[in-house]
Design brief:
- The complex is a heterodimer of chains A (362) and B (295).
- The two termini of chain A are 45 Å apart.
- Chain A has 2 domains: 2-234, Rossmann fold (3-Layer(aba) Sandwich); 243-358, OB fold (Dihydrolipoamide Acetyltransferase, E2P), CATH 2.40.50.140.
- By secondary structure, chain A is of the alpha+beta class.
- Chain A has helices at 49-57, 99-109, 114-127, 143-155, 173-190, 201-207, 225-230, 235-240, 332-336; strands at 11-20, 23-33, 38-42, 64-69, 72-73, 85-87, 161-165, 193-198, 210-215, 218-223, 245-248, 250-252, 255-258, 261-262, 275-279, 285-287, 296-307, 311-318, 323-329, 344-349, 355-358.
- In chain A, the strands form 5 sheets. A 6-stranded mixed beta sheet of chain A has the order 6-7-8-3-9-10, sandwiched between helices.
- In chain A, 25% of the residues lie in helices and 33% in strands.
- Chain B is flat and about 100 Å long.
- Chain B has a single domain, classed as MetI-like fold, CATH 1.10.3720.10.
- Chain B is mainly α.
- Chain B starts with 7 loop residues before the first helix and ends in a 6-residue tail after the last helix.
- The chains are: A alpha+beta (362), B mainly alpha (295).
- Chains A and B meet through helix 2 of A and helix 8 and helix 9 of B.
Chain lengths: 362, 295
Amino acid sequence: MTNRTKDALPISVTNVTKTYGSVHALDDVSLEVKSGEFLTLLGPSGSGKTTLLMVLAGFTRPDCGSLKFGDDEVIRKPPHLRDLGMTFQSYALFPHMTVTGNVGYPLRLRGVSKTEIATRVEEALETVQLGGFGNRRIDQLSGGQRQRVAVARAIVFEPRILLMDEPLSALDKKLRDQMQIELRHLHEKLGMTTVYVTHDQREALTMSDRIAVVNHGRIMQLATPRDLYERPANRFVADFIGDSTFLNVTRQGNEVSFNGTKLRFTDALPDTDNITMMIRPERIMLSENGPRDGANNFAATATEVVYQGDSYLLHANLADGTQIAMRGAVTGKSVSSLPSIGDQVTLSIAPEDTVLIDGSEV
Amino acid sequence: MQTVRINQSGLRTDERLERLKLFGLSSPALLMILVILVLPVGWLFYVSFIGANGEFSLENYERMISRKSYARIFWTTFQVSFLTTGLCILIGYPLAYFLSQLPPRLANLGLITVLLPFWTSLLVRTYAWLVLLQKQGLVNDWAISLGLWDEPIKMVHNMTGTLIGMVHIMLPFLILPVYGAMRSIDLDLMKAASNLGANPRRAFWNVFFPLTMPGLMAGALMVFILCLGFFVTPAVLGGGKVIMVSMQIVSNIELFVNWGAASALGVVLLVLTVAILWIASRFLNLEQMTGGGGH
């Protein structure tokens, strides 16, 4: 199948706006998806990520803006002429057709000969590990199998762009984890430009080359998974990706302090006076022997200790009353010396884990 | 190892009692079915095999085969039923489609207007058509004054009038199941078809239409079977020129006081209806087995 695959196409979204009444579903969105890239639109429900995908597919007509696949302006092209592969949240498999009927449908529409349809459908089914399932009816398939059929149908006509709308949200966790890896491999194999929509941050982090975090119809940050997690651009992104605690810190020139104590940090400060410190639970160290040299140390009172098998969760109150959560690895040593509720503890954060971000709620 | 079976007999008694109670509750309905359905239909069968001399005979059925007029009556009955069903599909399907595309509030309003005539007396509606369609009726008057045609057109006391009246009365029976089938179609399916490269016409014929088939079949079957036994509308609007089985049954009783002949006609109509239902139900089941009609 790889040898037939055409070159992937870049997607270029420019100044796209879509309003419903007074609500901005998309607010002047611009976005470049590189050729062959796996880009995820991540955001809470109602953020506009699905609207953006529907604009790409041609099902939603924006108020204004430009959309290019490669060099072709397609914003006014009807959906059936856009030649995109797409999977739907509900799978949208045709219940009155067999698996073969579904997967072969786009080829039938393109006037491909019957014998070639048969070969290519079987190839596509093998690609999604459903070889020999062609004669099944859709209602005989499990959720995971339906998902694979939907993928096979979306790739069988070798589109140069693939859109996926929350394709795994209906699957149970174990299957979802497995499918994430499989879809990732499929993307590596076929190399088509892929735009993936999800509200599941872990899924986005696992699968994507880059992630666009969407909220209120705008792109809050577009970055690689690692940058997004380590260096969120603003408080919304920091809050949405991963667990985090925010500390109110004060900036004076190039110095930042918490509760009167200067903080050590490595990165350049964002260009604003409204600074917040973001703390990830797993980046906090529990220092049993008092403050650590070279780290930022916080005195705290343990309020809750939860043993979770592979790790433990410690909730503690800082001097200013901020509730902070830390996650530590459970080892033979740490499990025997877990703090109890009410204990005074010292929490330490390395300077490179001291992330100072723009604190405004965007 | 010996297992201890505690409370076994008591639990069994509970189950028996429960079943008895259920039967007790449904017995009035069963009795009613027996008295007003099974007994009369049995009596109908019995009477149809009684000849003019009061003894067992097949003469009522032989007459149906030997006399040409009966063949014509059955032919007319099927013709009217087929044409009515066909016209109902032609008019009802697009209307149901239109309603299904409206936002729910407007669609409900539309459905009420479809149902409104349904709640009006059948007799009233039939006579209303008589008034509208007759030579000096509203339709002819308006058409002539608008210059659509010069001479009054004969639109009642014939097949045309019968069909107009019957289609009007039968339409809701077709529209409701078709509308239901259309509403239950997942809109993502149409998007998927379009995304895969189907233009609107192909998406309709390849995806939408097949998925409405169960509803369409159910509606068409309902209309067809109701038509087979129709009496009032063809009697009033057909003006004696459209004679259906039900009308022959009436004249057999009122004119000839021949209960045997009337019963035999009733039996044949009943058997035909059941046969059609049986064939259709097999077809419909098949349709559902292939996943038609969705969820």
